[in-house]
């Protein structure tokens, strides 16, 4: 494993080979919202030995199994379809179920365990924010991203302002990551207490699954979809500028 990997960002490493996400998840390294952090700094922040982590990444690479499809090679339309069909549908299915569990557990166990009341409040706030976030992506941002691959520069012009919208979405991703961190702390790393009831165990297991899926979801947007959309929008802007300056353009 080349030590030059230490200077590359965690997000780049996972985008190149998605199976590496398993190593980062095992060590609690954020590769979605924190994906712009160089690997060396991520190790330092977690108190991890860089050589050990490089060996673990090397072992994953040596399997020859990429883990999941390399979405950096897909078209924007394919990537958007995957995100909506996989991650958005997962959230629409799981958020109501987990909300009901969070309320039930807080009601039953909150008087003795106030952390479940705090957990309910954090989760319900995250749910509300995610529901708005999904609608903004599906109704505004994703249609604009699809237009960027249209050959007609005038159709691409409708994607103006996309850069600002993507910055806003990344900020919301960061806020979601912070909420997930609070949930992880309140559940003591998603470990149920020894005397936990079935509802507690179901809630904690569901929240652990939610964190894993959101990490993959946000990573695909922050590290694959958004950078490519910004690059295409930039080229579209230059193309439209050239058309407007051309003396042969009809007005």
Largest sheet: none
How would you name the oligomeric state of the polypeptide chains in this document? single chain
Over all CA atoms, what is the radius of gyration? Answer: 21 Å
Shape: globular
Low-confidence parts: 237-251
User: Distance N terminus to C terminus?
Assistant: 58 Å
In helices, the fraction of residues equals over 70%
Count of domain modules: 2
Number of strands: 0
Summarize the structure.
The chain is mainly α. The chain contains 9 helices and no strands.
Give the topology.
Blueprint: H1 10-16, H2 21-26, H3 39-46, H4 50-62, H5 76-109, H6 114-147, H7 153-156, H8 162-186, H9 198-245
Task: Give descriptors for this structure.
single chain, 251 residues, SP0561-like, 9 helices
Description:
This protein is mainly alpha-helical and 251 residues long. The protein has two domains: 3-62, SP0561-like, CATH 1.10.3910; 71-245, no CATH class. The protein has helices at residues 10-16, 21-26, 39-46, 50-62, 76-109, 114-147, 153-156, 162-186, 198-245. α5 (76-109) packs antiparallel against α9 (198-245) and α8 (162-186) runs antiparallel to α9 (198-245). It is globular, with a radius of gyration of 21 Å. The model is unreliable at 237-251 (pLDDT under 50).
């Amino acid at each position: 494993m080349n030590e030059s990997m230490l200077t590359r960002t965690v997000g780049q490493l996972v985008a190149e080979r998605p199976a590496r996400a398993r190593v980062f998840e095992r060590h609690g390294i954020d590769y979605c919202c924190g994906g712009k952090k160089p690997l060396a700094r991520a190790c330092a922040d977690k108190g991890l030995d860089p050589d050990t982590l490089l060996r673990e990444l090397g072992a994953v690479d040596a399997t020859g199994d990429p883990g999941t499809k390399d979405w950096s090679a897909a078209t924007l339309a394919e990537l958007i379809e995957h995100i909506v069909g996989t991650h958005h549908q997962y959230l629409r299915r799981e958020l109501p179920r987990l909300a009901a569990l969070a309320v039930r557990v807080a009601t039953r166990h909150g008087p003795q365990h106030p952390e479940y009341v705090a957990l309910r409040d954090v989760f319900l706030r995250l749910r509300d924010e995610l529901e708005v976030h999904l609608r903004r992506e599906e109704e505004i941002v994703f249609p604009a991203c699809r237009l960027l691959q249209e050959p007609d520069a005038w159709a691409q012009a409708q994607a103006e302002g996309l850069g600002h919208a993507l910055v806003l979405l990344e900020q919301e991703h960061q806020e979601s990551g912070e909420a997930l961190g609070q949930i992880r702390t309140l559940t003591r790393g998603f470990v149920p207490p020894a005397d936990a009831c079935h509802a507690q165990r179901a809630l904690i297991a569901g929240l652990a699954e939610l964190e894993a899926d959101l990490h993959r979801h946000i990573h695909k947007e922050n590290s694959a979809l958004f950078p490519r959309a910004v690059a295409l929008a930039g080229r579209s802007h230059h193309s439209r500028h050239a058309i407007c300056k051309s003396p042969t353009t009809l007005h």
